[in-house]
Amino acid sequence: MDSLQIYGLTAEYRTRLLGTDVPRPRISWKLLSERQGTVQAAYRIQVALNQTNFDSPLWDSGRVDSDESVLIPYEGPEAQSRTRYYYRVKAWDGFGRESEWSEADWWETALLSSDEWQAEWITPDSRAIEPAAEPAFLLRKPFDLREGDIASARVYATAAGVYELYLNGSKVGDDELAPGWTSYDSRLQYQTYDVTGLLREGGNALGATVANGWYKGRLGWENKSNHYGDRRAVLVQLHIRYRDGAETVIASDESWKAATGPVLMSELYDGETYDARLERKGWSEPGFDDADWRASERLDLGYSRLVAQENMPTRVTETLKPIAAIRTPEGDTVLDMGQNMVGRIRFSINAPAGTAIKLTHAEVLDKHGNFYMGNIRTAKQTVTYIARGEGTEIYAPHFTFQGFRYVKVEGFPDQENGLPLEAFAGEVMHSDMQRTGAFECSDERVNRLQQNIVWGQRGNFLDVPTDCPQRDERLGWTGDVQVFAPTALFNYNGAPFFAKWLRDLKADQLPDGSVPFVVPNILQGYNAAAWSDAATVVPWALYVSYGDKRILAEQYGSMKAWVDYIRAQGEQEHVWDTGFHFGDWLALDAKEGSYMGATPNHMVTAAYFALSARILGEAASLLGLAEDAAYYGALAKRVAAAYRDEFITPNGRVAAQTQTAHIIALVFNLVEPKDRPRIARDLNEMIVDNDYHLTTGFVGTPFLCFALSDNGYHETAVKLLLQDTYPSWLYSVAKGATTIWEHWDGIKPDGSFWSDDMNSFNHYAYGAVGDWMYRKIAGLAPDPASPGYKRIRIEPDYTGGRLGHARASYESMYGKVESGWAFAGNGNENGNEDEIELRATIPANASASILLRGADAEQVNCNGTGLADAEGIVAFRQEADGVRVEAGSGVYVFTYARPQASYRTYHPGARLGELAQWDAAKRILDRHAPGFADNLGYMEKLPLAAAANNPMGGGLSQAQFEAIAAELQTLRA
């Protein structure tokens, strides 16, 4: 196939986007081409109101000479409410090929103005049904439709609380826990549903049931409810359009009737109680007798806060079957789901009326094998179902979710003789994001760690990025989010998810720039370094992952307000030394009884001040704000200088002797180049002297392996990753973890637990090591200078000496990107034990910079030929680290001589770093043998400096060699 094709169309990152209030959605597409080095030369977009009539489009961009194919804004006539827009794309490439038009996709607007709401907020009449009553409310409205073909029907609905909508007896949509959690005081999402197929001529009925959810329910550990309001309500507006052009609107108002039903209690923390005997059969169907139902009344909640659905909704994304039913030593009957998951249990049962089945959910068993609820704190996580006694009954909770692996079952018929496993299923729930990333390597323990990272993200990305999904917390802690965001954005397409959450952060930010600890903010705590810096770090992570400048523009005011807040603290402009901070939270070098690590808080505040100022300056530059770019760029440099004055000694050492202090100094680029080798060496020695164990907490851990790998100690980083004794990432894997733990020793070596006060077994923060695994081991990363994987960095580092292969893939906005390497016997198809094979896949309209680490350019084979003759290779050059290859799109297989086992010794900054930086060594070489250093192969650098005799075979005279070696030895000393 030698053709150019267009596929993968999206509007605002989504296909078939139903119900948006974005007036000018951005269109993206992918190119499919089998030719290496394919680059788009031009594109053309058409938008029409009818997918069969693009001959008279609403907007035609015409041919646009550009290689842009991601997030191109619609520039046609102003969008209208409740309108579907079809779009298609064609493209031309640099080979002169023209594609056919793509298949058409569409987006559909919702209500673009609050004036369009005809519905009223309604709730049961408070004189008939107590507003604070625990049972979920039911509200219904019968209506008749005239004869005539229905062209389309849409429901726009939301709730103060969480709701389910029914039409003619069928649940509308597959969303769960709608409308999701936003900063309700400022923003409340509504959903759009296509219900065309559920309506009929004549009698119809709408029904809504609403429970407390995040709006009114208990949140936080202080047993507080009613954070946003003390009354539940729903808002429903149904638009019906006939083929003859007529329209009918059915809207919630005081004519709706209300009652309570079988959901007697439903709370996010505590679970649900459901009495099936109280079901009102047919309550959402026409013809139901509602004579004993009560009136409803209007609530004045307004429309100004309403926004169309922004994030992917929460859905059931997978079903797990229990792997065993256990009888514990204490006599409990417990289901083992085999995986710490988030969601609910669905079960079927045949039982007499009134039989109560109780399910209690927990994450772990204790060391004796008994059911353990201590770490859940005050959350009950209990579901009770009371049977109606009519044949097979099937039930799953409606308005709650649990975090669990184990389920204690009580009251199930004949459970003394064993539970029927086929009667139970675990329904996994989270925001229904597209899976984009994959990683695997030769060590199955690391593969399990990767699975744990992904499961931790799934469990905690349930509409907001929570810290934990099981205890009486489940809050959007900003610190956890900012360290995990790059890992999260590799695993899943999180652009809509994070954009929604960042809008809530901005909404909850105070006028002085203060940023909360948690978003949405129910704790009223503000301004902690590394936590509140999510205001800058997360938008930047989105930009790097997707090239999304609009999110930077949208959040720029928030970002700037946050940096200006920091700058205004204390008596010195460049030092933030006031207020409360979490510091290196949960670090193992903390004082007895403290959660805060030994790294001084002011080192953390200064490091993040510099980071946020630098991000802000770069964002300003991208947005064309030259004055801000210059100011905040200079501010970042001044803050870094103040950091050095305060925390780096005159002889180039870090004042605080903690792992985290060294990590942030290196990774945040806060030290002078001359001091970097010593600081990196000191960090390495801390790890080695601690028998390759870490002592870091929430601040240091995400960057620890980067600090080592980027400064010449990749072997140490790999040993650290593969360590499986406490404390380490693989310690929890060895203990059977299926998600990431909050504490390194959540379960201690003797089987006992860390304190119940704070011991989540599903807490993704330490899973941030995934970012290093993807970027450094597999070698796959976007280039921030050309973000969104337009230009890709493929730089795998296999010099750790302990892995036989690794590979990662990522479904980018341009298509699938892959990087993988293997030694013989580890997936290397060549099978030559002396060779390494590196595979790279670059999608059309993207390019890559590929590092063949340790290679000799003359010895590299690419797709069966030399580099100079390989199709798609734009350029290559020999560098200190190996061969740098610039490549266009295509699939490349590179093979070359496997570096010797001692190759890792020569990694820049390792042994060479102990001598001096290569730049210093090069100056010595240039003085004695001008130009010689520029021609050195990667493998030759250290032997020249350290060998006992001349390894160059005549490349230097013996006198030259001896003079150089003597100076280098002096430099080393």
Automatic annotation (TrEMBL):
Hydrolase found in the keyword field: yes
EC number: 3.2.1.40
Domain Alpha-L-rhamnosidase concanavalin-like: 327-429
Alpha-L-rhamnosidase C-terminal domain location: 784-861
Swiss-Prot/TrEMBL keywords: Hydrolase
GO BP terms in the entry: carbohydrate metabolic process
GO molecular-function terms, A-Z: alpha-L-rhamnosidase activity
Enzyme's top EC category: hydrolase
Alpha-L-rhamnosidase six-hairpin glycosidase domain location: 435-777
Catalyzed reactions: Hydrolysis of terminal non-reducing alpha-L-rhamnose residues in alpha-L-rhamnosides
Protein's UniProt keywords contain Hydrolase: yes
InterPro entries reported in the protein's UniProt record: 6-hairpin_glycosidase_sf, 6hp_glycosidase-like_sf, Alpha_rhamnosid, Bac_rhamnosid6H, Bac_rhamnosid_C, Bac_rhamnosid_N, Ig-like_fold, Rhamnosid_concanavalin
Bacterial alpha-L-rhamnosidase N-terminal domain ranges (all copies): 149-318
Record PANTHER family: ALPHA-RHAMNOSIDASE (EUROFUNG), ALPHA-RHAMNOSIDASE (EUROFUNG)-RELATED
Name the UniProt record assigns to this protein: alpha-L-rhamnosidase
Originating organism: Cohnella rhizosphaerae
Lineage, uppermost ranks: Bacteria, Bacillati, Bacillota, Bacilli, Bacillales
